[in-house]
Amino acid sequence: MITINNLSFAYKKQKPLFNELSLNERTGQIIGLLGKNGAGKTTLLQLISGLLTPKSGQIDINGLNPINHAPVLLEQIYFVPEEFIMPSVKMHSYVNGYASFYPRFDKALFNELIKQFELDENKNLSKMSHGQKKKFRIAFALASKCQLIVLDEPTNGLDIPSKAIFRQMVAGALEDDQTVIISTHQVKDVETLIDKILLIDNGQIIFDESIINLSERYNFKIVSHLPEHTLYSELNPMGYKVLTPSDGETSEVDIELLFNAINDGVKFNNEKPNHE
Amino acid sequence: MMEFKSNKGIFQQIADSICERILLGELAPEDKVQSVRQLASQLGVNQNTIMRTFLELQHSNIVENRRGIGYFVTKDAPDTIREMRKEEFTKDILPGFLQQVKLLRITKTELEPLFNQLKENEDENK
Amino acid sequence: MNNIFNINRFGKLIKQQYQLSGKNLVLALSSIFIVYTAILLLFTFNNSSIETLEWLPFFIILNTVIALPFAAYAFPAFRTKEKTFDYLLLPCSVAEKFTLNIIIRILAPWIVLPTIFYISSHLASELAQWHNPALKIESFSLSTILGQINHDDLRIAIPSIILSALIHQSVLFAGATVFKKQPLIKTLVAIGIVASVIIFYFYIIIEWADIYQNGKMPWFAIIENKESAIHCLLGLEIVLLTTTWAYAFFKVKEKEIA
Question: Where does the record place the ABC transporter domain (chain A) (predicted)?
């Protein structure tokens, strides 16, 4: 569904952000896009949506090049940016104006999601708090049933109960042909939600692995003494948080620990070969 | 929300909780288990993870897939689970328990009332 | 579905515009009406007699003052990065978005503003006459004004005057697709620079270099009569208008956030 070949990109008067980046993602996954500040998570999402033009390389979404802004593709993409401005209208006017552009928009689902998020349909969108606006956009995104839903830092600004509701809504509202990309720093917020981890650093995808594989191949645990085959460890009040090869049992993936391990230079044997 | 206390993989934790519900009788044999979507939405967990849970349970003959309808608890599920749990218990938990008993020098006489309590439970169940 | 222009989708775009800015539109039109009426009331109350033609300067100045900045602020979403983001992702073709802006920002004022002026001027006339029945006021009427223009030369020139007004709007409209903030002022400055370069050029070739000395006629003097001059002007204006629109279109097409 998403194919990127040798993508290079640089902002004006800045050093290249992506250098020959390649990526291939099949339909029907929830992808967690991680990376340090400034690694280019948002830029990559914007390139995928056709909001920026690559310097070189190809991007292909469902067989179409996003930079052409073809309506057939646009009606299958919904992007919730990290920052946005809502017009000064009531929620139902906004929905009346926008929903018809998305052929699979599900009004019943939208109403349900709004209820879950405790949003008032008669409130003016521009007068809502940032968190409420965000919840509205997330609800709209899920109700649009678009094949590609892009969520840039979706849990930023959400209160604690809303984060759990967010996970439930995303997990429950998706169809098989929908792909979701979630870019985030708040890994704990999406840990149970994502199918796979995509990590960008230094203009490359340096890690691309499914959570199930990780939970089968590695052990993430807290121990009092460092075990023999420790790949990476961090001090913890209880002793150590450690990452070891699996002993046959599956283990709940601690993305934070994984992220730190990768940044620390730990090599994973299933790492993508394009890492230099 | 489910509490993910154990350190097992999430799909494993969900499988364990379904087994727990079968043992507690909340889910009887021939009952329909919630759909993948329902469970995903209830737990806030990825649908593919839930799918994985069901495959695992199906593999252990705890649930069966009736095409187009969903997953159902098998007739022998409680027995199967008990069998599996017993194995786990003797392999993983009992050694630790026995070691604690040894360390704390707990005698058989001290343990007896506890075992008797269990027996009473059994009688009540009958 | 047609990816270049689909009438059904265009309808959705109109509906969306209405849902989002219908209220603002009503507000803006009412303000224009109030301002027009206030100014025209001052005019009617301070004159003992008004001929139809005397309305014309008001008609031209008021409508110009509203229509030009309105064109200069086309594509309001382009004023901020965040709105540009959502606007680019709105599932409509560039042609549809562009056409709607041309209609709203350039063409619609030609109907809406004269209508408001018509109502305001009549209201002002009525009120003034009601206040002082001795006043001799001929109310505003475009057809009467056109009828009063006897001068044939002027009548021939009307299409080119209209085109010239359209070009003014369109250049400002194009400016709105180029400049993010303050498009009106920036476009005016840009036009000012271009205009002064052209004027300076003509000054150089005609006055300073004096290449048309010894009684030679300048090249633009080869046009013999006024009628062909007008036709030349019309042709030039049409070229200018299409170029401006094409330029604006490609600016919208190539828009990205950065």
Answer: 2-227
Q: What is the number of structural domains in chain B?
A: 2
Q: Which domain holds residue B89?
A: 78-125
Chain A residues touching residue B13 (CB < 8 angstroms): 252
Task: Spell out where chain C has E strands.
Answer: 49-50, 136-137
Contact A69 C94 (CB under 8 A): yes
Write phi, then psi, for C255 (nearest 5 degrees): -60, 135
Decide: C and B in contact? Rule: 3+ Cβ pairs under 8 Å. Answer: no
Q: Looking at the structure, do residues B20 and B57 belong to the same domain, yes or no?
A: yes
Q: Verify that B54 and B113 share a domain, yes or no.
A: no
Q: pTM (2 decimals)? A: 0.88
pLDDT digits (tens, 9 = 90+) for A102-147: 999 999 999 999 999 999 999 999 999 999 999 999 999 999 999 9
Looking at chain A, the domain(s) classified CATH 3.40.50.300 span 2-202
Instruction: Report the CATH architecture of A2-202.
Output: 3-Layer(aba) Sandwich (3.40)
B7 contact A CB<8A:
yes
CA distance C166 to chain A (A): 29
